[in-house]
Amino acid sequence: MVTLTEAEESGENVPKGGGTLVYRQRLATRLTHWLWAISLFFMLLSGLQIFMARPDLYIGQQSGFGFDNTVLSIGARQVGGEMRGVTSLFGASFDTTGWLGLVPQGDGLARKAFPGWLTIPGYRDLATGRIVHFFFAWLLVATLFVWLLASAFNGHLRELWPSGRDLKRLPRDVADHLRLRFVHDGRYNVLQKLSYAGVLFVALPLMILTGLTMSPGVVAKFPILLDVFGGRQTARTIHFAVMLALLLFFVVHILMVVLAGPINELRSIVTGWYRTSAEKRP
Amino acid sequence: MTRLALTRRHFLTGATLASTASLAGCFDPLGDRDSSVRNVLETANSLTYRAQRLLLGSDDLAREYAESEIRQPQRPNGSTNPRDADYRDLASRNFADYRLKISGLVETPLELSLDELRAMPSRTQITRHDCVEGWSCIAKWTGVPLAALLRQARVGPTARFVLFECFDTMENGFTGPVKYYESIDLRDALHPQTILAYGLNGETLPVANGAPLRVRVERQLGYKMAKYIRSIVVIDDLSGHGGGNGGYWEDRGYEWFAGI
């Protein structure tokens, strides 16, 4: 990590407010971060478009039409003489009119799993959804590969990987987070490490592998994928579940950026420079 | 089951309706089949095709399942009962007059009756049908390996694709009825699991599932597996057929290579 000691001595760029500006995020980290942000945005909305063609999730190799292996189903049906959006999860049904199954369109309601603002394109178009999804799938995988290579060489991987000492600090770190006490010493705390490592080494690989398990071409070559994930339809269900986990990560990520000081956080992921606070990690 | 149940014909009308007050509506122009941005995104498809062809080799078989995995009838999709007069006529006499024509870049064009096809060595496979919509269904298919027919017809050296022309009319266009058609490359055409199926789950292939003949291309999605096959043409270029993209759904924006 480069500090601005020389600049400080010469009186230039001395940050106000006691902290020191440090070069926190390398170019490779910043670039891949934004490529992921773009890829995941498009993959989420095009993925929901694809899902909308069959808004049901099943467990096993196949979809149960003559038997029941459905775990999630989004649809619309007559309830008491009126059309309602109904979402069923593990057998429990919920009225989701206006949000899922029966959604606003124009001046009325349309029988569609998701409202237009949740999909790319905003109307029903599976073909375009697939084109967008697979383009950004390639971009995401390429970015992950570049990031892994760069981070292995520039030390980013080491500063991200949770150590045994980190894990011992976990309870205290959780308590700090709950009290919204953030230490800005320019290093990742253990919860950060765990969530970033979780996304990069668990969630994204799972997304890629379950996505590939849905490809009839790929599983002809690697049928083991069907066994690992318990069938094509289970893989599709896991793909959807991990999407929800990534969405949760995104929400918490944005929340933490806001709580930790959005200007400083944004500057570091755009320019690389981050202002550390005067206090030191105990 | 090969076809898509959803109507996308009115996507432009839908676009106008749905894009009002839509956050992602700014990406709706991607739905325009001629959009240049869409064309850039589509290049990823050829990357997928090349990657799969490079990695997957030609001999890998799609997984075949046990009898116990057949837990339901094969779900019919797309056309399930063609109204076309010539088809109804053949169907009314149980396809006794049906002749499968194989022509194009072959040395010996063929015309085969169903009985002749049934007399040839057959292949039976229990496989998973994956629809582009996202669902899967396991069924037992029996038929003639397409490779055997192509060997008999002796494919010429310039041949690249096998085109399936079908009986069923999908819609009525300005220039008359638009019939379903599909195409695959020779590599898939010669794959051991690529069969012209006349049997499903131990019975004669029903009309709903594509009688008298439908192709199985087990390493691709359902819309590649044309039903109600009238004739097979061996060609070197897709551009002269239908809308020029190699298939009915391909002409409507779907990828020609449906291995993913």
Sheet with most strands: strand arrangement of chain A: 3-4-5-6
The top-level CATH class of chain B is Alpha Beta
Low-confidence stretches of chain A: 1-16
* CATH fold node name of the largest domain in chain A: Fumarate Reductase Cytochrome B subunit
Content-based structural category of chain B: alpha+beta
Instruction: Let me know the average pLDDT of chain A.
Output: 90
Please identify the structural class of chain A as seen in this structure. Answer: alpha+beta
Please give the CATH architecture of chain B.
Answer: Alpha-Beta Complex
Largest sheet: spatial strand order of chain B: 2-1-10-5-6
Number of helices of chain A: 11
Please identify which CATH superfamily of the largest domain in chain A we are dealing with: Transmembrane di-heme cytochromes, Chain C
Which fold name fills CATH's third level, the topology of chain B? Answer: Sulfite Oxidase, Chain A, domain 2
- Count the E strands of chain A: 9
CATH class placement of the largest domain in chain A: Mainly Alpha
Global geometry of chain A: globular
The major sheet of chain B is characterized as: 5 strands, mixed
